[in-house]
Structure formats: C-alpha cells, structure tokens
Design brief:
The chain is mainly β and 199 residues long. Helices cover 11% and strands 31% of the residues. It is globular and about 50 Å long.
Length: 199
C-alpha cells in the first residue's frame, strides 16, 4: 500500500534551498493523493503507482513500489501461531531481515537491466494512522529510449517476517528468501508527459 502522507515529517526531504519548479506532470501523485516525490525526498521522476507509468526520454528515474506496513509496536501486535519475531517492534523486525531489493527493467529482453541494492535503500516513516512503514525506492536508474518498457521488483529477507497486524500467513507474513514484490509491469518513456512514446 502506498502509505498516507499526512502526519509524516518531511523536513529533511524538503530542505535544501529553493529549486526550479518541476515541469507539469513531473511529480508522482499516487492514486490516493500523496505526492511521492515529497514523501521520499526524490527530485527525479518516480515510476511505479498506476498514476505514474511514464518517464521522460533521456532522463534518469526512480522506481517506487508499495511499502510494507506493520503494527505500531510490540504491544498489541498479533502473529500467526508459532511465529516469534526476532526484534520486538514489527517494523524493526522487517528492516533487520531485509537483505536486498532487485529492480529489473525490460526483463527477458536484450535491453534488460538489473540493479540490486541492500538495506541502505530502506526509508522508514509513520503514516497518519500511526503505523510505521518501510519503502525502498530504487537508486537512480539510467535513462531510456522512447517506447514501452517494463519494470519488476523482488526482495530478499533473511528469515520469515510477519507484520503484527494479523494471523493469516498469506496476508501478514513474508517468507525467507526471494519474493516477487511487484510483477513485471509496462510503462512508457515519452518525449513529454501526457504524450505516447515512440518505438
């Protein structure tokens, strides 16, 4: 889920002096209305949510996919039978087990690019409901030529993790090892936002 922007401290993300206004359509506004560029402090174009599936030709970009939300803390956290977290706070447990994220552009083609990074990409915040979440925006990715491209994201955890929000393994837990986080999804490299790309 793309976490709520309200109530999130953005001072660090928004500091750094005056900057030129981005071109119309540059910032990524999620379907629920959050400005993800402001949320994550990213100046470059974000690709990921359904409303942000285009990037300018020749411009670097960042992939942002749904974050992982957990119970606020150990008090009140509920888990499937037999599961014991390694760290008391569920978000700390997730972050400690997060080993890597892999971002694949144009997978299965002769243009495939794969970027794998470690826990340094984690961004942990608290949403308007008081629930912590961790996102993992990609590093800056190289520009693309005009046309249709695809992206996919997978993550690796060192051990099983459960979010403390419920007892259903399929809904509330992530397995150890590699998991598909976001399936292969098309997006466009365009000359300007609002126009189709050229092959």
């Amino acid at each position: 889920m793309f976490a709520a922007l309200a109530g999130v401290a953005l001072a660090a993300a928004l500091s750094g002096g005056a900057q030129a206004a981005p071109p119309p359509g540059h910032d990524c506004i999620s379907p629920s209305g959050e400005n993800l560029n402001q949320l994550y402090g990213i100046k470059e174009r974000i690709v990921g949510p359904p409303s942000c599936r285009s990037v300018r030709v020749g411009k670097p970009f960042v992939l942002v996919t749904p974050s992982w939300t957990t119970a606020a803390g150990p008090d009140g956290a509920v888990y499937p039978p037999g599961y014991v977290p390694e760290l008391p706070a569920p978000i700390d447990d997730f972050n400690a087990k997060f080993t890597s994220a892999t971002y694949t552009i144009d997978g299965g083609t002769d243009r495939e690019r794969v970027v794998t990074v470690g826990p340094e990409v984690l961004r942990t915040m608290v949403d308007a409901a008081g629930l912590p979440f961790s996102g993992f925006p990609s590093p800056l990715l190289k520009p693309l030529r005009a046309g249709t491209h695809t992206f996919a994201v997978s993550i690796v955890l060192s051990a099983q993790h459960c979010d403390g929000l419920g007892t259903v393994v399929a809904l509330n837990c992530l397995p150890a090892g590699e998991s598909e986080w976001f399936p292969q999804t098309p997006f466009e490299a365009v000359e300007k936002y609002g126009t189709p790309g050229r092959p």
